[in-house]
Design goal:
With 168 residues, the chain is of the alpha+beta class. It contains six helices and five strands. 10% of the residues are buried.
């Protein structure tokens, strides 16, 4: 039993289906955090890099013509401030270049340089190997099934105010 202030919450009152969904969410969270922690450590030790930096480079790699900073932030689902520092460092290392957008004097387009594309491609290849190593006990058919089930869940719940925010 869990004491929630003046009320006591008993898991005996929760239907089994709801318990299983909570257990599933906790397992997904545990696995995700463990994989993320391992990837962060490997990026740090092998490349002296971070996962957010890898994510920025990945987004830019997928958009060869570059992205406006606001588009990059939206693609990564973070604030402009979160990517600005990373972009500054990548520009300093000649991995990213910024170019002004003539139609919007306040905006800049950022893209990987050839050096940045080359370095990211090599890093992404190794990263993919790490993912395959960490998930080696999941056969391809099970991976496809799990992915489709998670996609179904996300699609099903998309319009149901998941996350607790107000619907706009």
């Amino acid at each position: 039993m869990i004491d929630l202030g003046s009320e006591t919450f008993s898991t005996e009152d929760v239907p089994d289906g709801e318990k299983q969904r909570v257990r599933l969410w906790l397992r997904i969270l545990k696995v995700s955090r463990a994989i993320e922690a391992e990837l962060r450590e490997r990026l740090r030790t092998r490349y002296k890099s971070t996962l957010p930096r890898f994510d920025v480079m990945s987004a830019l790699y997928r958009h060869k013509d570059g992205l406006k900073m606001s588009e990059l932030s939206a693609a990564l689902m973070v604030s402009n401030g979160n990517v600005t520092g990373i972009i500054e460092r990548l520009v300093g290392e000649l991995l990213v270049e910024r170019t002004p957008i003539p139609s919007d004097r306040r905006a800049m387009r950022v893209c990987l340089t050839e050096k940045g594309r080359h370095e990211f491609k090599a890093m992404a290849r190794v990263h993919q190997g790490w993912i395959n190593e960490l998930l080696q006990d999941v056969n391809p058919d099970d991976a496809a099934l799990i992915s489709s089930l998670l996609d179904l869940n996300i699609t099903t719940n998309r319009g149901n105010n998941v996350g607790g925010g107000d619907k706009q």
